[in-house]
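User: Hi! I have a protein structure encoded as tokens and I'd like to know what sequence might fold into it. I'm fairly new to this, so please keep things simple.
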């Protein structure tokens, strides 16, 4: 089957056009194809499916086969995919996700999308299924002391349609995420597991972030994670609302604007290559 390899700020997925036919067992396919040595390689796969209520429906699967409820970097690439191919050649595109319909405004040059701004919806607290801490159900937990990897960390909980915790640290470069990441991801505090962002505040409009993603490990960028990061920074007094904040990630920058009604994310969308794979 034909696939397209795309990335947003280096968060790379393998995309399949499922508008005509569905892929069986996407969970196993994601595990197999995400392997960076024995297959195409990626942070997971993304299926572009028909929708009754939007231009298309996005289903994304992490590298471990688990299905994510929302993916910020992937949704920009889905908008690029359908714009560039004339499936929906318009500046404002709607994409259905497991976390509702998201609106994407695309920026194109010579008929090809280069970047997009996504209305990621309203930031919220984690749902009662996502967290076992009573006071954290449905509300932001701000600076909650959490034990992980033999240390205590102050974390802030944020849902962007998928669950995140954000912790502010003096330095991110020296963190051994391969070692500590799984302790956060699999903490018993989060029954559906958790995405974790480690953040250094550079100034009121610039943050540096690394992420350990649920189901994919450390990725070069996380769109929902960058939105959770700026939300947590506003809640902790490090940044201002209604202001563009640049989140510096290993794979590139994302510009995030937190407002009380919605979080907006702007970033690139890049097509790397096309190919065919036995599925
Ligand atoms: N690992 C996430 C999904 C991918 C999110 C991330 N890649 C993004 O760009 O938002 C989860 O299971 O909730």
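Assistant: Happy to help. Inverse folding works backwards from shape to sequence: for each of the 279 positions I chose a residue that suits the local structure. Here it is:
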């Amino acid at each position: 089957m034909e696939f397209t390899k795309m990335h947003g700020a280096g968060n790379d997925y393998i995309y399949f056009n499922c508008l005509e036919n569905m892929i069986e067992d996407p969970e196993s396919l994601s595990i197999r194809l995400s392997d960076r040595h024995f297959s195409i390689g990626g942070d997971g796969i993304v299926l572009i499916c028909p929708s009754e209520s939007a231009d298309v429906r996005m289903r994304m699967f992490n590298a471990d086969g688990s299905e994510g409820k929302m993916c910020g970097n992937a949704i920009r690439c889905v908008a690029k995919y359908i714009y560039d191919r004339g499936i929906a050649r318009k500046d404002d595109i709607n994409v259905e996700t497991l976390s509702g319909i998201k609106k994407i405004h695309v920026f194109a040059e010579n008929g090809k999308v280069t970047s997009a701004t996504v209305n990621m919806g309203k930031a919220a607290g984690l749902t009662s299924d996502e967290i076992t801490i009573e006071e954290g159900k449905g509300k932001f937990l701000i600076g909650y002391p959490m034990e992980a990897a033999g240390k205590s960390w102050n974390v802030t909980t944020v849902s962007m349609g998928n669950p995140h915790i954000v912790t502010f640290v003096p330095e991110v470069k020296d963190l051994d995420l391969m070692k500590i990441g799984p302790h956060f991801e699999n903490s018993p505090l989060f029954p559906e597991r958790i995405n974790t962002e480690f953040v250094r505040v550079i100034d009121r409009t610039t943050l540096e972030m690394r992420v350990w993603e649920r189901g994919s490990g450390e990725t070069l960028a996380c769109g929902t994670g960058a939105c959770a990061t700026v939300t947590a920074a506003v809640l902790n007094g490090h940044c201002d609302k209604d202001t563009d904040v640049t989140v510096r990630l290993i794979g590139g920058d994302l510009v995030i604007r937190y407002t009380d009604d919605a979080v907006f994310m702007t970033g690139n969308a890049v097509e790397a290559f096309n190919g065919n794979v036995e599925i």
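A useful reference point when you look it over: The CA atoms of residues 14 and 45 lie 5 Å apart. Feel free to ask if any position seems puzzling.
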